[in-house]
Write a structure and sequence with these properties.
mainly beta; four-stranded mixed β-sheet; 0% helix
Length: 171
């Protein structure tokens, strides 16, 4: 009441109804062996987060990526997976891509060798990441700068063909 005048407003109070699950980030790229958290929220018809709404997590490809009950995604193997956040009948997904850790350096052992014509030597390749950790299971393509002097197989076996010098490389 203001100076004897009355104004009123009719209010309708709506009950919050869960209408969507919002997941962040919507896309995730991980290196094999890494982990990352994803977060999900349930929102109502007004876009307001409903605190305490239950979220269930699941992976469509557990051989590629797993997810814990609190949204911790673990990259298992190369490939893609969808991580699903479910609350009641509401579902939202995160696309997860698992990739190899990049190779920062490679080394061939032995670094040099002298072999006779017809003799063979096995070379090995060690790949490392940027922190110096050895990266396993990285295939290499071997080549010789001169097959007339030395040949190399796909397994890294070098055979001396004729006198001279050749450089054997692995990529």
């Amino acid at each position: 009441i203001c100076d004897g005048k009355v104004a009123s407003q009719r209010l309708t109070i709506a009950v919050p109804t869960p209408t969507d699950v919002v997941v962040m980030p919507p896309v995730l790229t991980l290196f094999a062996g890494a982990t990352s958290n994803v977060v999900a929220s349930v929102v109502d018809q007004f876009g307001v987060v409903l605190p305490g709404a239950p979220i269930a997590w699941a992976s469509t490809a557990q051989g590629v990526a797993t997810v814990s009950s609190n949204g911790l995604v673990s990259a298992v193997a190369l490939g893609t997976a969808s991580i699903r956040a479910t609350s009641g009948s509401l579902v939202e997904s995160v696309s997860v891509s698992v990739q190899n850790v990049p190779v920062a350096s490679v080394a061939v052992a032995p670094s040099s060798a002298t072999i006779a014509q017809g003799e063979m030597v096995l070379l090995s390749l060690t790949a490392r990441d940027s922190s110096g950790q050895v990266l396993g299971n990285r295939p290499a393509t071997w080549s010789s700068s001169s097959n007339a002097i030395a040949t190399v197989t796909s397994a890294g076996v070098v055979e001396g063909v004729a006198p001279g010098t050749a450089v054997v490389s692995a990529v």
